[in-house]
Hints:
Blueprint: H1 5-14, H2 16-25, H3 27-35, H4 42-56, E1 61-65, H5 69-79, E2 84-89, H6 97-113, E3 121-124, H7 129-135, H8 147-167, E4 171-174, H9 184-198, E5 201-202, H10 212-222
Amino acid sequence: MKISISDYILFIFHHRKNIFYFIFANARVTSFVLKNMTTRNFQRELEQLIQQIEKEGKTPTLFLHSCCAPCSSYVLEYLSQYFRITLFFYNPNIYPQEEYDKRVAEQEKLIARLQTKYPITFVAGEYDTARFYAVTKGMEKEPEGGFRCFACYELRLEETAKRAKSAGFDYFTTTLSISPLKHTQKLSEIGEKLGKKYKIKHLPSDFKKKGGYLRSIQLAKEYDLYQQDYCGCVFSVRKD
């Protein structure tokens, strides 16, 4: 797979505000993450699990949380070779309502057009913004990519884990680790904690690796997907 220089430049330009804000505003969070970092390679763990699944001749079911169509593009292309996927669009953090509706529409458009080995089912969660504001209360001034975002990760992953367990899925996970601006270590920690709490297996992942993130840029371009310039919540909307 080849990614052109123009794709790199386009991404950096498109996300320049978030990238620079993330780097310069997160010294405290970066210190926290480094202190709690492990040497685990989550992508390698996923590959080993897939090898075992193929060896056993199984096709497990996966309840996959998605944050948006562009981030889910590569993840769906990759995992749909090995899992029967139900995509769960649960993002009560997104602001405003019009933005939420646009992202839902783009997600459904991608699923309808994407060619996959096994069909993908779409489920939209409740757009309950009050839950997001409740779990992030007191963290309104936290920097983007900081502890408020960790609370948001957990809100969305917990709903995913609960639904996956109640519906009898084999695994659950999220597309969030595709982004270089998300903390894969923290996502994995939360996912594994919730997996134990609800007695359902969390699928390890670091989807940005092995060219995954770059492939998502390429697929977003190929499918002409709407690419937002902020994560989703009102706090992530930065003024120039």
